[in-house]
Amino acid sequence: VQLQASGGGLVQPGGSLTLSCAASGFTLDYYSLGWFRQAPGKEREGMGCISARGAIIYYIESVKDRFTISRDNAKNTMTLQMNSLNPEDTANYYCAADLSNTCPPRGYDYDYRGQGTQVTVSS
Average pLDDT of 69-92? Predict the structure, then answer.
């Protein structure tokens, strides 16, 4: 069972990035999926979740109008489209999966957590 985030990199303020989360060893169909990030010296921050049924919630207001979560069960992947990035978005981003039909509450510890990808927003 493995989750791997990819697509990170260096982007200028105001720019966009698309992150992907790929699963191997299991199918994501029955899992609710979340995106998290952690910046150096800061606590882990849950950004949002897409449930096994496709419902989306955002855990923090600062990304709600800028980030979009989607999933493709046929490809066993999840995507995070990030727009209007700013330096405060700099962090290591990773995905997580929880065997549940509905999104866990903010702060919940998902069943599986994957390897992250670094996003740096800087001019």
Answer: 97
